[in-house]
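Re: weekly structure request thread

Next one in the queue (638 aa):
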Amino acid sequence: MVLRSVASRLALAMLLGSAIIMVVTGGLLLSHTREQTLAQTQREAAAVVQSAAVRIQGRIDGVATIGRTVAALLHDRRDQAPSLIRDALAANPEIVDISAAFVPRDSAAVRDQDAPVVRRDPDGKLTAGSRRTDAEPYWTSDWFVQGLNCDSGCWQAPFRMAGRPETLVGYSVAIPGTSRIPVTGVADATISLDWLQRLLSQLGKPEHASAFVADSDGIFLAHDWTSYIGSRASRPLREAMATGKNPVRLTPEMGARVSEPVWVYYVPIRGTGWIFGLSMPERAVLADLRRTYMVDILLGLLALAGVSLIALIVTRRLMAPLGVLAERAENVARGDLDFALPDVRRNDEVGRLTRAFDHMRHQLAGHIDTAKRTAREQERIASELEIARQIQLALIPEPRWLAADGRIELFAALRPASAVGGDLYTYFALGAKHVCVMVGDVSDKGVPAALFMARTITLARTIATHARSPSDILAALNRELCKGNDTCMFVTLLCGVVETETGMLSMASAGHEQPVLHAGGSAILVDVETGPALGLDREARYPVRVMTLLGGDTVIMYTDGVSEAHAGNQRLYGADALLDSVSRIGEGATPEALVTGVLNDVDAYVEGAPAYDDIALLALTWHDAGVKGVRLDAVAHS
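Done, posted below.
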């Protein structure tokens, strides 16, 4: 795979890292630029809105001035009202009609001169009339009632008039009276809102923007979307205007009458309760920003691709020697050390690594050669040890033996701690009426102990044929082992001779462990006076212990590999544990059962720990149940 190389992964990591940085910084830049764009748009929209508001304010203020002037003139010229309002209307072509409505002296007998009005027809002709003919009595109409309370003038709600297609709006001012009657009537000037609609179309608005004028109730007086004229603004826009939140962002989810998010900028028109607003789609506001951002992103991606390609090429050139080293390392893993390495041209990390790899290869080749020679030597030694083990085991008789007459049965076990060991056991017949058994432990371990053990067994068999007493056997064997024993090796040995007809057992010990007697379901140590170990003192003497075995009695002979067995706690197995193990074996058990039971208890005690010492264990059972009387137990000194 391509991404298996370090160079590819490094280039990919650089690409991903740079992309993440670009996305994060680009997002922050976009957010900052977006805020700046919206602020700039707000300033531009505010300028447009303010300019339009000033123009509207100028027209509105002109109408308001005319209304207030007419009201002031009518203060003391009520009888001249028809001519005054006609002159004022003639002088101001933007006004549709002017009324001078006085409070009637008698509502039941209202006269035409109480509410004169002059109207401008659509063709520009002025027509005089009276409010008395209105469908609703003028003195109860909202515009008249509200006008009575507008000393400084106020704008009324927009309305429609029969015979005119446009929306109209009136400015009402209270006509001042006397101190007894402060207000005598209302002067009202009505204008058409068509000029307001024309004004919106003449504004230099940004593209996609739409302008509107709404009254204090949120009714659109003018709107670039003419279908909205006369309708009420959405609740979110009315709430924003009521709270003074400017600008305000409206979305379809908020319940606004828009198909996409828009920003609305507005300004109130003094004295009217109207507002002039500018609505701009957010998409249009941020369109240039998005295009610029996408171009920047595309350029950034191209730059990243270029940087990654350069990084890939450079890193591959730099990492090429490492790739060769990786392949050579695989050769080393397969055992192939004969290969060429890249030329070292620089003393950088790659150069030092190449030289170190080459040095390691040569050292490894030397170590492998040494290891091979060592392995061959170990194989040779292991083969020789196995041969020595076979020879040693050939010197040891079979583990189980039963006399022809069935009176004597024995079982033995030998466990060397390594391939070969120094512990031994042997048994053989001495003539027709005696059997000799031996268990011994050489002072050393391994091959030297095995050789000394083989010498001991061979000499013992030879010497025992010319002697009948264990004391004589040990004395003669000791003298032979002392010859040429410059290394001062020695062997402890327990030797016993059993008379096959009587069961009389004679034992002598050369520094060996005390044997155990299993009789009558109990176990005791047999106290055998011991002499020195064989091979140390040519003049040593070995006392003899004589005892008579009864039917079912078993003598257990063993080496210190049993009594001194230990595990992690370093506590020795000991003679007490041995006696307890033997005593738990029932009376009448075979020698094999006794040997197996003791070995199992020793294994359980050491908890699987490696063997500390060689183990030799021999059990001899006397089966002549016809022997009666008391066991003979005596010590003889040679």
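The chain has three domains: 1-323, 341-393, 396-636. The chain has a mean pLDDT of 83.
Next request, please.
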